[in-house]
């Protein structure tokens, strides 16, 4: 797939800017705070309808304005598609496909596929489990847009179950009778337990499935980038574990198996949940563990090892999306090349080749190989204006 043009209207620090991408690789050069990342964020929004930087649309709209718009023209093997997103500070967004407004946002997802790589991605290894869950969830949405809906359903049930547990806890505290609300609570909870297990099992099975495909790809890349000196292991650590016979592929677990394990675990945590007033069981507490040569990368990996790991994950994502979607996704490299040493830079550039359209931001061109620069479109970004770089 190839993003031909992008039009930003009242988006972040752009008032009205059109960009045509006329080479498979585009470098956006500019000083800090000029709008480079904002442009990549616009592409991310057209892909996932989410920004990894903010959650409120108001912040995405040019200051002092009430609405903004992003429009992109995409070439896919099936034909040209125009994607549009209208953002409003005081009302809901509108999603447009070939200028027609879409009723379901789900139909917009996964038309433009992207893999992003920014310095923030080191948090994937160093940060909290939440980071890793949101990384795998974003990947799943790209591969299978209906997952966005599945996840939303799970979190809705979770919120309602948490609200019930919290209310019950504060009522029992204020009445001073620990057990006064119990019978009602238990029967109401049972309804939510069942729904949590059904919706949660969908999330868990999909996470198993995607990791089963991603892990060997990441391991191969990691081995290659580390010059065959390191072995990476990725382990999905679901909060609800299903005990299976040896050699059973976990991704092949039936929904019933997972739901049963889920309910079983809830029954062992009932008291703790009621005391803490929150749900302690479910995929909102999952994690993914990375180990390099048997050592946990999060606590003990050197920063070089952690960079190699993130790079391997990103390359694996590219490969997996291409295999599932059938077309190479876009790669967005936000200020990340300069942070990689030369050999890792070259691994990355070699892997990209000409197959993956790549948008790269940088503050200086010094870090790039001159031969490489010759085949690249170079644009300058200055105070929300994009022009040719001279
Ligand atoms: N809603 C908005 N309205 C107007 N300007 C905004 C808005 N949001 C962000 N900006 C401006 O955009 C600029 C930041 O742009 P961006 O994050 O793209 O930086 P960058 O060029 O990638 O720089 P760096 O190299 O520091 O990451 C800042 O000047 C900020 O004030």
From TrEMBL:
Binding site for ATP: 30-37
Gene3D superfamilies registered for this protein in UniProt: P-loop containing nucleotide triphosphate hydrolases, RecF/RecN/SMC, N-terminal domain
Domain RecF/RecN/SMC N-terminal residue range list: 2-368
Entries under Pfam families matching the protein: SMC_N
Location(s) in or outside the cell: Cytoplasm
Major subcellular location class: cytoplasm
GO biological process: DNA replication; DNA synthesis involved in DNA repair; double-strand break repair; SOS response
GO molecular function: ATP binding; single-stranded DNA binding
Gene Ontology CC, one term: cytoplasm
NCBIfam families: recf (TIGR00611)
Family to which the UniProt record says this protein belongs: Belongs to the RecF family.
Protein function: The RecF protein is involved in DNA metabolism; it is required for DNA replication and normal SOS inducibility. RecF binds preferentially to single-stranded, linear DNA. It also seems to bind ATP.
Name of this chain's protein: DNA replication and repair protein RecF
Natural source organism: Lyngbya aestuarii BL J
Lineage: Bacteria, Bacillati, Cyanobacteriota, Cyanophyceae, Oscillatoriophycideae
């Amino acid at each position: 797939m190839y993003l031909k043009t992008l039009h930003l209207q009242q988006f972040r620090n752009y008032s009205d800017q059109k960009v045509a991408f006329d080479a498979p690789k585009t470098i956006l050069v500019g000083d800090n705070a000029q709008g480079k990342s904002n442009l990549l964020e616009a592409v991310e929004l057209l892909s996932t309808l989410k920004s990894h930087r903010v959650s409120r649309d108001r912040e995405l709209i040019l200051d002092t304005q009430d609405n903004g718009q992003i429009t992109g023209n995409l070439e896919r093997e099936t034909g040209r598609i125009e994607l549009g997103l209208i953002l409003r500070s005081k009302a809901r967004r509108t999603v447009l496909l070939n200028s027609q407004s879409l009723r379901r946002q789900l139909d917009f997802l996964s038309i433009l596929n992207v893999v992003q790589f920014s310095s923030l991605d080191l948090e994937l290894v160093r940060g909290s489990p939440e980071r890793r869950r949101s990384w795998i969830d974003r990947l799943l949405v790209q591969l299978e847009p209906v997952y966005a809906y599945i996840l939303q359903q799970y979190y809705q049930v979770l919120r309602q179950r948490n609200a019930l547990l919290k209310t019950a806890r504060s009522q029992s505290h204020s009445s001073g009778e620990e057990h006064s609300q119990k019978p009602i609570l238990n029967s109401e909870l049972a309804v939510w337990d069942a729904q949590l297990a059904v919706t949660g099992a969908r999330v868990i099975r999909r996470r198993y499935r995607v990791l089963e495909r991603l892990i060997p790809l990441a391991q191969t890349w990691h081995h290659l980038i580390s010059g065959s000196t390191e072995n990476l292991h990725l382990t999905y650590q679901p909060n609800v574990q299903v005990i299976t016979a040896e050699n059973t592929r976990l991704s092949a677990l039936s929904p019933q198996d997972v739901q049963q394990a889920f309910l079983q675990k809830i029954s062992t945590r009932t008291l703790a949940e009621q005391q803490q007033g929150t749900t302690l069981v479910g995929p909102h507490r999952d994690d993914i563990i990375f180990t390099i040569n048997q050592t946990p990368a999060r606590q003990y990996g050197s920063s070089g090892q952690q960079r190699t790991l993130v790079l391997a994950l990103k390359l694996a994502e590219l490969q997996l999306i291409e295999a599932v979607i059938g077309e190479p996704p876009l790669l967005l490299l936000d200020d990340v090349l300069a942070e990689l040493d030369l050999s890792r830079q070259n691994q990355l550039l070699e892997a990209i080749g000409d197959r993956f359209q790549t948008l790269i931001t940088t503050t200086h061109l010094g870090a790039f190989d001159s031969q490489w620069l010759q085949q690249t479109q170079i644009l300058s970004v200055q105070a929300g204006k994009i022009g040719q770089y001279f």
